[in-house]
Structures are given as C-alpha cells and as structure tokens.
Amino acid sequence: MDKSSSQRLPPLKRNWWLKHRFFKLYMLREATVLPLVFFTLCLIAGMVALLQGAESWQGWIAFMGSPIVLVLNLLALAASLFHAATFFVLFPRVMPLRIAGHSLPDQAIVAGQWAGVVAVALLFFWLFGRA
Amino acid sequence: MNTEQINAKNVSTKHISVKRYLPDSSAEPYWQQYELPVDDSTSLLDALNHIKEQLDSTLSYRWSCRMAICGSCGVMVNGIPKLGCKTFLRDYEGEIRIEPLSHFPVQRDLVVDMEIFLEHLAAVKPYLIDDNPVKAFDPQTPEPYQQSPEQLARYKQFANCINCGLCYSACPQFGLNPEFLGPAALTLAHRYNLDSRDHGKKQRMAELNRHEGVWSCTFVGFCSKVCPKHVDPAAAVNQGKVEAAKHTLIALFKG
Ligand code: SF4
Ligand code: FES
Q: Which keywords belong to this entry (chain B) (predicted)?
C-alpha cells in the first residue's frame, strides 16, 4: 500500500488533557513553570533595584515582604519541589547510569539527586544564615 | 473440584457498552449494550467472543493469540488503552465502555486502520544493519553473531514490544500530529541503536532527529503506563533525545 492509502484523523481538540487524570497531572507538572516565572521576575527586579540605589532596594525589600508576594513565592517553592520530585524520578529513565556494565538501581539515582538538593540547601543556609 | 468451589467463581451478569460503527448501514457510530454472564476468569476478549458467538454475530474486533503476545486485541476500556485478553471484567465495577483504539481511523466496530503505525515502524529501519561486517558472509561456513549477556541486557527491555499500538492511543502528541513517529517506532529505533551487532545508527538518526522524530515528545509518559509489556517507551524516546543531541553536537564539531 502506498502512503496516501492510510487515512489521517483530524487532530485532537485543545482540551484533550481534561479527559484523563493522568493528563491533568502532566499539565500540573508543566504549569509549575508559571509561579517560577514570577519568582524569576522578582529576582530580576531585585537586581535592577540594587543597581538603582538604596532607595529602590528598600522598596524592593518591602515589595518582597508583602503578603501576596510571599504567598506567590511560597507557591513557587512548592511548585519547584513538585517539579523536582517528578523530574528526579524521570531522570534515571532518560539517562540510565551504568557502572562496569551493571545499571545503577533507579532508587539510588533518585536518592542521589535529593542528596544533592539537601547539600545545596545546607550550603545556602551556611552562607546566608550567618549574615 | 466440588460444586462449592465452582460456585465460588463468582458468576454474575455484567453490562458492557460497545461503540459500534457499521459503515454499510450507518455513517455515524452508536453505542450498543450487551448483557452477559461473567465469572472471575472472564477476560474482555472472552466477553467479546461470547457476544459474537451467542448474542450478535455482526460485531467485529481483532484477536489472535489470547495470551498478550500478538498485540492485535487492543481496545479502549473506559477511555484507557488495554489488551482485551489481558483485561479481566472482575476488575471493573459499574459501567464498562469499549471503544476502538484512539487516534487511529476506525474501519468497523473495534477494528482500526494501523497502516500509519506500520509506516512509522518501517521508517526507522528496524533491522540489523551491518554495512562493514568484520568478515564477508560465507554461506558455506556461516558464522553466528556473538553477543554477551551484558550486551543483550542493554536493549532487551526495548525488544519486548508486541506492536499492539496501545502507546499510540495513549499519546496526545500522536493524536495532535499523526506524522509524529511515536513511542513504539522510536523505541524500536533505540532498540536497534543499542544492539552491539548493529551499525545503522547513523541512518536512523536522520529520522529520529527530525521534529516528527524524538523532538515531538513532551514526556507525557502515559505510553509507558499503558504498555502491557513494560517496555517503557517514554524512557526509550527520551534516551533517543540524548542520543540525537549528541549526534548533532558531534556533527557540528566535525563540520
Ligand atoms: S511499546 Fe508497549 S504499548 Fe507500545 S506497541 Fe510496544 S508493546 Fe504495545
Ligand atoms: S489476543 Fe493476542 S494480544 Fe490479545
């Protein structure tokens, strides 16, 4: 049979992901980027404020302390942890690690990644906790 | 076995709704209900056979091995792609809705046109390619290809695919763009790329590295959930992305 003999269906509708719990979870994972964009914008604003001088820096600090911004940034933290959790589980499937011909168990790779997160967090608190 | 043990098999009556499509008599698909006796061991395929033999001989569906090996009995059960012979009605309470596999054109009742799937499989050259064999093949003294258990282990999981197409019905990217090579074809390509006896990676990479190749995958991951053979096509496709990226980089440096 030649190529044209097989029919093609019309593409899915935009709301395809509402059909199934699994797809909604996937969309949630993708949506974690939204609060993270907000957090990144906050950081950029902070750097601009720093360049502009003491007054706008104080303004930025006040802005960061406002309840709405705090809530949004907590949301961003939760979103990034959720994303990390799902990503870490996927990682060994995308990059299976082999040592001397034997594949490393998935759990070991996932645990290793979380150990990395804890290490970075500890380093962060050690650096900035003293200020 | 005494009668009590036989009775303990939980015989009951269940309703299943089947999406019918009979292009000769009606242009539109419609739902039809069947009522049938089931026990703990009744598979969905048994149920379809019962309907065909006892209730309604006009029902069309595919099957062959009834042991999860031929890959022909795939249908949607309550919206999820499943093998009919590996699905048991005892696991379903309430409504059971049977539809043809999603994202494929329906020919009749539960029978879909798999042509596009076969085209995609063929596109990735799913066979051993060895253009420069160490030794020329001599039919008088044929020499087998040797492979160690470690070399086999690298691709074995990806070689378990039975071409049932369930992963294509689970993949929204294939639903959105049927030209996407899709989970099984990309997995098959990866399986041959990982095979120590094969040297066809370069030829396959051209196919894989297209937008319709690995890059259309957004790692929804449902394909791996529905795969009846635990092939993990999502893993294979995304390992293919790593390979494709490496391939591009290497090509860049070679100029
Ligand atoms: S990868 Fe799994 S679901 Fe997809 S065709 Fe092969 S056996 Fe079926
Ligand atoms: S009948 Fe062969 S896989 Fe189900």
A: 2Fe-2S, 3Fe-4S, 4Fe-4S, Iron, Iron-sulfur, Metal-binding, Oxidoreductase, Tricarboxylic acid cycle
Q: Does residue B62 contact residue B110 with C-beta atoms inside 8 Å?
A: yes
Q: How far apart are the C-alpha atoms of A56 and A53, rounded to whole Å?
A: 6
- Chosen for mutation from B116, B151, B223 (greatest number of chain A CBs closer than 10 Å) is B116
Let me know: does B188 contact B204? Beta carbons within 8 Å.
Answer: no
Q: Which atom of ligand 2 sits closest to the CA of residue B73?
A: 4
How confident is residue B136, by pLDDT bands cut at 50, 70 and 90? confident
Q: How far apart are CA B71 and CA B228, in angstroms?
A: 9
Pairing of strands B74-77, B97-99: antiparallel
The closest of B242, B61, B152, B84 to A94, measured between CA atoms, is: B242
Distance CA B78, CA B97 (A): 5
Say how far apart CA B199 and CA B9 lie, in whole Å: 54
pTM above 0.90, yes or no: no
CB spacing of A93 vs B235 below 8 angstroms: yes
Q: Could you tell me if B13 and B35 are in contact, meaning their C-beta atoms sit under 8 angstroms apart?
A: yes
The ipTM estimated for the assembled molecules is 0.79
Q: In whole angstroms, what is the distance from residue A89 CA to residue A100 CA?
A: 23
Per cent of chain B over pLDDT 90 is 84
Ligand 2 contact via B69 beta carbon (within 6 Å): yes
